[in-house]
Amino acid sequence: MLTINNLHARIEEKEILRGLSLEVKPGEVHAIMGPNGSGKSTLASVLAGREDYEVTEGAVSFYGEDLLEMSPEDRARKGLFLAFQYPVEIPGVSNANFLKTAVNEIRKSRGQDPLDSKDFLALMKEKMKLVEMDKSMTQRSVNEGFSGGEKKRNEVFQMAMLEPTLCVLDETDSGLDIDALRIVANGVNALRDQNRSFVVITHYQRLLDYIVPDVVHVLYKGRIVKTGTKELALELEAKGYDWIKEEVESAAI
Amino acid sequence: MIGSKKKLNRLPSKLLFNSTDGMSNRTNYTQTFEDFAGTGLSSDFLPLRKEAFQRFAAKGFPTTRDEEWKYTNIAAVAAGEFLPASTLTAVTEKSLEPFLIAGKSIHRLVFVNGIFSSDLSKISALPEGVLVGKLSDHRTHPAVKQHLGNIAGNTSGAMVDLNTAFIAEGAFIYVPVNVVVDEPIHFLFINDSTSYPTLVSPRNLFIAEAGGKVQLIESFHSIGTNNHGFTNAVTEVVTEKNAHLDLTKVQLENSAAYHIGFTAARQHANSEFHITTITLDGAIVRNNLNILLAEEHCTAYLYGLYCVNGSQLVDNHSLVDHAVPNCQSNELYKGIIDEKGQGVFNGKIFVRKDAQKTNAYQSNKNILLSDDASMNTKPQLEIFADDVKCSHGTTTGQLDEEALFYLRSRGIGEENAKAFLNTAFAGDVIQKIAYEPLRERLMELMQKKLKRQPL
Hints:
The complex is a heterodimer.
Chain A lengths: L1 E10 L2 E11 L4 E5 L6 H9 L4 E10 L2 E2 L5 H7 L1 E4 L6 E5 H15 L7 H14 L4 H5 L1 E2 L5 H15 L3 E5 L7 H14 L5 E5 L4 H5 L4 E6 L2 E6 L1 H10 L2 H11 L1
Parallel strand pairs in A: 3-10, 3-11, 6-9, 9-10
Antiparallel strand pairs in A: 1-2, 1-4, 4-5, 7-8, 11-12
Chain B lengths: L28 H8 L9 H14 L15 H4 L4 E2 L8 H4 L10 E6 L2 E8 L8 E4 L7 H6 L10 H8 L5 E5 L9 E8 L5 E3 L2 E6 L4 E11 L5 E11 L4 E8 L5 E11 L4 E8 L4 E10 L5 E10 L4 E10 L5 E10 L4 E10 L7 E10 L5 E10 L5 E9 L3 H8 L5 H17 L5 H15 L5
Parallel strand pairs in B: 1-7, 2-6, 5-8, 6-9, 7-10, 8-10, 9-11, 10-12, 11-13, 12-14, 13-15, 14-16, 15-17, 16-18, 17-19, 18-20, 19-21
Antiparallel strand pairs in B: 2-3, 4-5
Helix pairs in contact in B: 2-6, 7-8, 8-9
């Protein structure tokens, strides 16, 4: 469903992704780990269509279409969802109103009729349970005054509402205590199925105890330098990233 | 020189003279004033009006050389060929409908070209002692004698003087001691410049006696775009001890309209005054707001919203005078400026030497949607007391790109996402309005304006 081939991207003059390739098939969960500054969040931003980044080389195809040519909204309508590392606070826009618009724009792009208020409320009620979300959170402004945990739960809640086929989780575990982490991970796991894929970007192995990946990749200096099973994550947790860096540097010499 | 007693109940002929008195205006206001002097609120206020006219004649229209008008060029207004409107034109119940922004059911007083229309107005039962009507009917009321002209004062500038000189009619409300008026009262001012360029000078006086409580809406509208209409309004507000007065001023005059408004309030002990000024249309609009916190433990809330596009100019000047200790003022003005629109904000807060324990907050936030849009904003805090809490902040920027990306990443199209953010930004001010039907209507109008649709 997603094929990234030799992707190079930079922000201003700084090249961050330097030849990243990745293939994600339906139903797979890929974890992308790596030290700080390796390009993990850049990958998430480029996939979602953030304009600050310039793609200088390579290609990304999503269901056979050129993802990089699409606007951020078209990517979302095609089934891509980015769970933000830092969800944005939008004062004055209620969560429910925002989501209703989003759900209906996505439905429209799929040729479905918009949900009326009653059906929408019913859908919200059902999905809220997934992340143990309180009703009052849906009435508040988007992320405004939310705690770190509430913001991440809200991301997963939105994911559940929009029913994407490819979910990119950008350091969803950052800033979460163990209870919040469990709730968020349970929400994600409930959404796993044979057609829905996940790219889980994380710095720590901890999240992968809850969201068990099929494949683990290590990103370093803008490229995937190692790919393995979930045991690779445990190894990284135990040994840190230095051995990877050494491997890469010595290979380069 | 006030010899002429011509009645102006006919359509006045144009009074064009070359400027000879230093005023760069094409209307000869001296002649016009003389023609107008005997009309309107009888002779009771003639001395007040004559004095005001002399002050106006001495100063003339303000120019951009005046510090207070530096960014607001009203040369086009000064050069206009206006005539004081004096005829009640035929506004039908049907054509009134779009102007009923607070709903059809509430009390309303309609003034067309400054003249009260009893046919279009509707006042149902009010608590005993409440007086609502046209100012001329109440000219002998002691409160009118006491306050008219005294709240705005005679040093508030040429435009107030010009209004006072042409006092003919206006809206009046008097809420007696401890009377609470539940239903809001809507005053509509319609400037119909279909036949000639009109000068309309509404003069309003709103008084809440001790413990009185009332919610008022002033809205300004216009008919006709083939001539400019010029509304030069003054509203005086008095809140006596423990009174609570809530005023929403809505400016909806069209793109041919000039509007200069001056709202002056005097607050007495423990009183509360809410004012929300919403400007959604007009060619040149200047809203002046002066609040005097004259006695202790008063609270004033000043909210403002202006949505500006085309080549419109909207200027909000406010002054909160903390004259005594222990008062609070909260001020929030927001603006969205598109195309070649110009916005101006000037917020003065004076904290006098004795006004200890003052809390005064001011914020002005603006979004510029185009490269040609401009905003001049100036907070002006002058604090002479040392035990006070005062803050001010002003921001002018583009739409929040992060928020825009967030919305788009959820499948919401760019235009829709922008509308969401602008609506949220501007809606913040509209949400301060207590009366829900008005709030909802203003949200609709604001959204139309942001889509550059006719209102």
